[in-house]
Amino acid sequence: MRNLKLQYCKEQKTGVKxxxxxxxxxxxxxxxxxxxxxxxxxxxxxxxxxxxxVKTVVELPDIVGAEFLQLExxxxxxTAAGEVMHINPDTLASSEGTFCDxxxxxxxxxxNQEVVAFVTKTKNVVVMTCNYELLGEQPLDEGLANDQQFVxxxxxxxxxxxxxxxxxxxxxxxxxxxxPTDVESLPQDICISWRGDGALFAVSxxxxxxxxxxxxxxxxxxxxxxxEKWNGLQPALAWRPSGNWIAMPQQHADNKSTVALFEKNGLxxxxxxxxxxxxxxxxQQLHWSADSDILAVQTSTxxxxxxxxxxxxxxxxxxxxxxxSFKRSDxxxxxxxxxxxxxxxxLHVLLESGKHYTYRWNFAVDxxxxxxxxxxxxxxxxxxxxxxxxxxxxxxxxxxxxLENCINHVNIYSFMVFALDSERVLHAxxxxxxxxxxxxxxxxxQSQLQLAQLxxxxxxxxxxxxxxxxxxxxxLIEASFNxxxxxxxxxxxxxxxxxxxxxxxxxxxxxxTCYVHTSNSxxxxxxxxxFEAKKLQPTRCFTQLPQPADRIELYLYxxxxxxxxxxxxxRPAATIVGFRAQRCLHIRGNDVHFDAEGVTSYCFxxxxxxxxxxxxxxxxxxxxxxEVDTRNIERGGKLVAHAGNERLVxxxxxxNLEVISPRxxxxxTIKFMINHHVEGKMxxxxxxMRKHRINMNIICDHNLSEFLQNSARFxxxxxxxxxxxxISELQNEDFALGMYSSNYEPKELQYPPEYSVExxxxxxxxLFCQILKPLKGYKESLIMCHVKLGQLEQALLLIWRKYKCxxxxxxxxxxxxxxxxxxxxxxxxxxxxxxxxxxxxxxQKSQKDPKxxxxxxxxxxALPTPYRYFKIDEQLKRYEHAVEHLAACGEQHYELAMDFxxxxxxxxxxxxxxQQQTEFHQRVCVAYADHLRANAQLEAASIMYERGGQLQQAxxxxxxxxxxxxxxxxxxxxxxxxxEQVANSLVxxxxxxxxxxxxxxxxxxxxxxxxxxxxxxxxxxxxxxxxIHEACRLEAQGxxxxxxxxxxxxxxxxxxxxxxxxxxxxxxxVNYKQRLLDIRKRPATANDMDVVGDDIDELDLxxxxxxxxxxxxxxxxxxxxxxxxxRSSKNRRKHERKLLSLKPGNPFEDIALIDALHxxxxxxxxxSQQQLVRDTCKALLQLHTEDERASQLQRLYxxxxxxxQDALDEIWIPELMGGTAQHLTGPNIDFLALRKEQRxxxxxxxKRFKPQLNIVDWQFEMLQ
Length: 1264
Fold this sequence. Notes:
Blueprint: E1 3-13, E2 21-24, E3 31-34, E4 38-42, E5 54-59, E6 63-69, E7 74-79, E8 83-87, E9 94-99, E10 104-109, E11 115-120, E12 124-129, E13 134-139, E14 191-194, E15 200-207, E16 211-218, E17 223-226, E18 238-239, E19 246-251, E20 257-262, E21 268-273, E22 283-288, E23 295-300, E24 306-314, E25 317-326, E26 332-337, E27 346-351, E28 355-364, E29 366-367, E30 373-378, E31 381-386, E32 399-402, E33 407-413, E34 416-421, E35 426-429, E36 435-440, H1 442-445, E37 452-456, E38 461-468, E39 471-481, E40 485-496, E41 499-504, E42 513-518, E43 523-530, E44 535-544, E45 551-556, H2 564-569, E46 574-579, E47 584-589, E48 593-597, E49 601-605, E50 608-612, E51 616-621, E52 626-632, E53 638-642, E54 648-651, E55 657-660, H3 663-676, H4 681-691, H5 697-701, H6 704-709, H7 711-717, H8 720-728, H9 760-772, H10 779-788, H11 792-805, H12 807-820, H13 823-832, H14 836-843, H15 850-861, H16 865-875, H17 879-887, H18 894-904, H19 907-913, H20 918-934, H21 938-947, H22 951-961, H23 964-974, H24 979-992, H25 996-1006, ...
Parallel strand pairs: 1-38, 36-40
Antiparallel strand pairs: 1-28, 2-3, 3-4, 4-5, 6-7, 7-8, 8-9, 10-11, 11-12, 12-13, 14-15, 15-16, 16-17, 18-19, 19-20, 20-21, 22-23, 23-24, 24-25, 26-27, 27-28, 29-30, 30-31, 31-32, 33-34, 34-35, 35-36, 37-38, 38-39, 39-40, 41-42, 42-43, 43-44, 45-46, 46-47, 47-48, 49-50, 50-51, 51-52, 53-54, ...
């Protein structure tokens, strides 16, 4: 489906007459032209007609072949006399490579230049290495050995084969070979052609018994195959570089002219017919492009008219894509395909006068951007297929437009097609296939240069390019549709460099611009077209591509809500797409910057650019250059066209077509339909969603605010069945941000106020219920809404009400409900309505045995109404409703109610239901209190016992909670023991729970004012500040030496204990720190690092946040046997204890020490410890005689704090805290640091960092 598009035709003047061969260097700075007796070196060509630098490298008579040897940087030239010379093109020094005394007919080097093949004057094939060491030599007409002859085993009879359009009669026709009668009259030319890999080569020659034939040799000169015998073969020979076919022209007995394609074994494979007679126009040469895509057929006629036909193959059909004709006044000398990387579609043509024409083509699909019609060139025929109407596989087409001459170029503009043929006649073809011929004027016919990039712009104007030397002329051409139908050149603009791509703004009616791309620099220039002055003006350099492109296209992004008038008045932002075949795709615009590599094809589809890679399809949003989605396709598939709406047409490597509907384009089509609110289109896009399995949640998620506002209109516009399907698919999920986020951005979504996605189904279904209730014909949708809301009872009642007036319709509604809900569940719901008629209606549709459910219903009917309701609720496990109905049954069911409440733990509901029955209410309270006390909720149990009148049980529960005030209150109400006794019974439990201050206040409340018991409680609780206050109070009442006898000794004893504890903690900290430093000083060895796993299986102890795992941790699990794949919490704690063991010699001793030091620092520096030291020093100061002891204690703790702060940096070093992470990856990885990191990963993440010290104001300045 692709055409050959001429990128440029460049004219250069070399001054070399009658060239016969062209040699290209990889960089193309120098071109070597070989004539019959000279070798010319042609440097870069200047502007105009002047030849800048052409020099003669060597003069040798009768040159039969030449090759530029890249490795040696020499020219290898062979002459008919047998000389093979090596000439250095820089120094012009020459040396002899080899010599053939019998003379040389032709020479051909292998593509890899490792082997060279000669055919001598004596018709011998000689194969030599690049150093001219003989590999093989044998006569050209030598036959195959007996074991190499073809053997017919009787397979594939001609009568059973398919013969296509030739019909069954072709099976009866005989193609017997007839030996030629006069072999000497045949052309005696010999031609050599190598296969692309250099393993085989073929030689075309004239055999005495056969006539024109060919033989196949390997790279060592051994004969492998001879050709099948055929009449009418001509001398030209070309082996396809890919290796599958050998091409030779053939004239058949029925005057049919073809190019025969042979396999490497010499058997005829297939052929394609030529549009001319080989007798009148014989083939001079056949040339395959380096990538095997294009076959060039060079011909000449008796009147010296010369042509080059370019063929491509697709789906086993050969298309004639280009026809180049050359004037008799300056005939064709040679043509040569460029074999450089990226230049495979470049053809070099030299004329006899010395002019050098360079043709550069690229493959492209001729399809207008906003159309789905594809135009394929096939000689004189233009094959047209509109993929929006029919998908016709090539080489067939929907319709055929035939012209008088071969078509070279097609351009589509609006509803017209413009075709330029090989005679430079421009054909304007309208949509009704009416043709108008536009002839070129004399000025356009003077030059041999072809019009490249011919593009229609506004009005009757065209743009084209012509390249001369180092500059390009952009031509403005006017077509005349008057009496004289022709086209002529109006003006031209000269641009430095080679313009190989051009695109025009054809969609915009007011602004006239075009963009040209230069292959030299990769720059894209913007040109303004002044139709009034009829000239072109450069505007600016639009952008610079990273790499030169083969093709550019203009894309004007327009928002969907923009009208046509606004589009014409306000120019949208221009975006240029540059594409280089099989390489890169570049998108450049004001806010768009996108690059992709390995791209094989692309096309526009609405607001998306779609491109393919080897086996994937990608979608890029043209508004912001964001790649939104990717999907897999068949390997090698390429895009042909966008077939409208959601369909894409791809051509697979075999040539067949495949039409797909990617989800991105389907969603874009649905999005467009929803945005435009076209009446009648709602049903269309719902059907489209069903066809492509698009979740219907996107209908509301597209714009939820607008959907809710227009929900009534939506309901009325769709069918009942479609609405049911929509409601059934509703989910509490935002599909615009989830499954279909490729087509939506969060900023464009709109939601109603106070909306949450968890309430989406509820909001929509409730709104639909309000809309659907008064409507007729939407009962199924209303039922679906109730089901989605979980209102099955309302759905059943709706059907039951309908049953009373229309039983048949109710039957249908109930059948629909049965598809949604299990019938047994519906039976239970019907039973829960207490309407036995409805229950029978549902039961008849279920699989229940009538003997069972009728018996049960009769039993229920016989019961009193409240008790009946209770039994139904109990059966349906609606226990709270059952309690309500049981409460209405009266006193005779109190025992049943109590058992039921206890069984189902319905105490709170029962307290509400039995609030008026005081006696039973108290029983429920007591039962609830027993339940609470059994669950260790003693405070709540005490309250419930109190409500139930069980004061002793309430007091007992309160005692266990040590709620002193409540205990005293309940004891006072009970009156069974004195309050002082109750208070004294609480003192010991309070002391056990370290609640000394509460015990002191409780004793003080009942003890005599001169009692020393409160003071003893304070001293036991080490509340020395409060104890000093209490001692002073007692001494004020007359007691003596209370401070000296009680408070001071207890305080001094505690200070001594505190100092000893702090000293012991300091010594332990110093010990741990020194052990850690000693371990770090030891040199790390492999055994130290690899001990992980030998002594302890620490894999389960790795931190969940650690990403560092050695291969030992992650790669060797399968080799550790098939043990348990999990660890219980008990085993895990055991391993943690083993890991954190402080025993010397533990493999993880450093990790255990870090853990212990972190705990030690946290303990010593916690704010409660600081406050304890401060309170103790304050108490000592209040004694007035122990200032020195207070100062000693403060200095001790201060020294410990300073020592801890100074040691933090020694313990928590940077590598422990992850400070060397930059050395753990990359080429310069530090393996020692990596191993340490793996060990440190075993530490709790919090303890890998220094403890956060919270220093409070704990010191007294007077003690410093």
